[in-house]
Amino acid sequence: MSSEIGATRRLGDFAARCATAPIPANVLENAAIRLADALGLALIAGEEPTVAAMLSLIPKVHDQPLVARAWVNGAPTLLSEAVTVNALAVHAQFHDDSDLVSWTHPGSLIVPAAVSTGEAMGGSLEQVLRGIIAGYGTIEWLGAKERVARAMIERGVRTSPALGTIAAAVAASTVLGLDRTAAQNAVGIAAGITGGVLEPVRGGSDEWRVQNALAARGGLLAAQLAQRGVLGSPQGLEGPKGVARALAGLAETPREWGTDPRIEAIFDACAKPWATLGDNMAAAVTAKLLHADGINTEDIRRIGVSIWRHYTEYPGTSYAGPFERTAQALASTAFAVAAMLAYGELEYDMSFAHRRDPKILRLIELVTVAPHDETPYDATIEVALGDGTIRRRTARESPRTLLFHDASTAAQVLRRRLARVISSDRAGDDVAALIFRRRPSECRIAEVIDGIAAAARPRRA
Q: Residue range 358-387: average pLDDT?
């Protein structure tokens, strides 16, 4: 019998280790940055119809075991329901961060599972941050340097829910403090209940939001069942009918799964300053620069966009109208570029309320997208004006902190988002002060959610 550690066991060991092993301060701080991003995104998504529909379905409870709060309105509910609606809200505007290695949105999958679990069990901020770190390390590791991720995409499997259930299980296992055996079972259970297809993104329907919500909820359930002695598949990832072969169609276990996940993987995820598919972010960054240059869009005659080849191939990015559904605009590269050139902004309202805007539609007709084979964060846009002038910008000209937040940037973004839903100028500062405190072990995660609930109180029914 081989003594080699299997991938499922290895991941379970990682989850257990993250609960107690020393973690550098800068890694904990980056987990706090992810927390701030997710909380702010959930709050600004309160009016999105899918979020509102989910909120109407969750029971409001008090003085019951395993209770956590919905971030959108501060209402207490069952832990499973809190994870579901919070994940849905974070993902609702396609605004949550992106991990390129796994082609996923970790913020909506991992942060709600870690935070709500921590709140329900009376845990500390540090316990939650450890769970976030474990989840981010897991989801990048599962992507196997894009080999698993791209193989899934080619088969029509959406990576966020397919890998996210497992990552959420690891995050919840770490927060719960499961031992190695239980954490391994959680990974095996999550591997057996995971999945989701790409058709909703391609077709512009709404259930892609629910995919990530159910993945976060499924990960929590896997950890809770394992905590209670339920057995998971010991080879749920690498077995003959496991995730690598069944969902990714690989002939063998990825070699990347033969090494441990990295807690530093959390640094690699890219924040999304605007509400559009992650594949469009570099192009949106570049269009923002051109808008800031003061170009009169009425003078534009041609718009040439160059982005990473694999982004041009992702379902939905090449769609250029008509935009009958909000998600069609959210996914479209042409729409992202045209809206940014026209207005210098790309919040959710653009795709929701301006998808038939004549100013944007005229520019979309002028957009040509060409692939390049450089890096994912490279993009170039050339705009030809009526007088023959060519204006050119590249994504590299933007500051790195626009996509890779430091603590200061994250606090500013949180402050701006909370200002959209509450009149108090201090709400964002107060919550940020809690999230980025020097000793997270001395703060209960419930204190952070108290601040969010206060901001959300005007929405409470």
A: 96
